[in-house]
Design goal:
The chain is mainly α and 380 residues long. The chain has 15 helices and five strands. It has a single domain, classed as Glycosyltransferase (Alpha/alpha barrel).
Length: 380
């Protein structure tokens, strides 16, 4: 018996058959049908895409767990598409290159040893490194670095803050993108990537984390001077709030950064952020933001809990703790209530993101959490 429940393995097999060779960014849905309105969904080459690779990542974890080549063969067919994005259209990328290339190119390289995937990993890391702003010491989150809006972006999307407010902006999610840079240094031997990743992590440490160990979703800097201008918000409830999934990205991201750098402050802050998280959600599934006002529905975010599970396992590699083990067990049991084992429903984890959704990111990190405790394969 493998680490991933058999019913979920079957679901993942059904999912890749349904997706076939037309993998896109399938957004969260209330009913778990990710292929709804498939033709309108963006492909990998679109600059806005960030979740596509969670499907390849789940398939590859299923391959690692079962040895069933159907999962590996399915993922391999997308090699050219992933290469084209970074080699042919490198400007059509954003900071979420980590979310796109770690659960695909990094994982394929680790599993197969194919040097072509190594080249893709390093090129993706090059694209991410080029988003680094030396004035300010951060990786810019969104938009093209020349601020041009791609011709394929429709007028309505062009009004989105992704394009209109991207200058001088970094967001907490990038703590899970910088592992791509750390990995690139490890496999290339070049310190360049690691230095940029470390500089960004240090900036997050300085500006994103408040004295009470809550965090801001975003932070803005002067584009000209790099001067810190203050907090911003695009995914949390409001400026000054405490977004649960953002906290999860930081906890896991800093623990990974410690693995590559051995900087004690990274592991220390990961643990302090986790302790704050535990206090806020009282050992159960968190609400989507810990500072919601009384007039807002206190809906849950199981994706944050799934990411936290992976973060705890990462922390335990370096600093085992009985209390963490107990919390991990409680969190695993709590998540079990929200897992959909129906093989006919593509989505796995219900009640994500405070919007009563199934979504691929929560699904992915749940699957990773099963495997992370029992395998030495790492992709971040």
């Amino acid at each position: 018996m493998g680490q991933i429940p058999d019913k979920l393995i079957k679901k993942l097999e059904n999912n890749i058959k349904k997706i076939g060779n037309d993998l896109r960014e399938f957004p969260g849905t209330v009913d778990g049908d990710y292929l709804k309105n498939r033709e309108s969904r963006i492909k990998l080459g679109h600059i806005f895409n960030w979740t596509q690779s969670f499907f390849t990542g789940m398939a590859l974890w299923a391959y690692k767990d079962t040895g069933n080549a159907i999962f590996l063969d399915w993922a391999e067919q997308f090699k050219e598409e992933y290469a084209d994005k970074v080699f042919k259209t490198p400007m059509e990328t954003m900071h979420d290159l980590g979310f796109l290339y770690s659960p695909y190119a990094v994982m394929m390289y680790v599993i197969t040893g194919d040097e072509e995937y190594k080249k893709i990993v390093l090129k993706a890391a090059d694209c991410l490194a080029m988003r680094y702003e030396p004035n300010g010491g951060y990786i810019r989150a969104w938009g093209r670095m020349d601020n041009k809006i791609p011709d394929y972006v429709d007028g309505e999307l062009a009004k989105n803050h992704f394009f209109t407010e991207s200058g001088g902006l970094a967001i907490i999610d990038c703590m899970m993108n910088i592992p791509l840079l750390f990995r690139a240094s490890k496999i290339s031997g070049h310190p360049f990537y690691k230095k940029i990743a470390t500089a960004h992590a240090d900036t997050v440490l300085t500006h994103f984390i408040r004295e009470d160990y809550s965090i801001t979703h975003a932070y803005r800097f002067s584009e000209e001077t790099g001067k810190a201008l203050g907090e911003a918000n695009y995914d949390g409830f409001c400026v000054g709030s405490h977004w649960a999934r953002g906290t999860a990205w930081a906890i896991y991201g800093f623990a990974i950064a410690y693995e590559y750098t051995k900087k004690e402050e990274y592991l220390d802050i990961s643990i302090k952020l986790l302790e704050k998280f535990i206090r806020e959600c009282h050992g159960d599934i968190p609400v989507w933001d810990f500072r919601l006002t009384d007039d807002v529905e206190k809906s849950l975010d199981t994706s944050a809990a799934a990411i936290i599970l992976c973060g705890i396992i990462e922390i335990e590699k370096h600093k085992p703790n009985v209390k963490l083990q107990e919390y991990k067990r409680l969190l695993r049991n709590s998540l079990e209530r929200y897992i959909d084992y129906d093989e006919n429903v593509m989505g796995i984890l219900k009640e994500q993101n405070g919007r009563h959704l199934y979504a691929s990111y929560g699904d992915y990190f749940l699957i990773e959490s099963y495997m992370k405790e029992k395998t030495d394969l790492t992709i971040w």
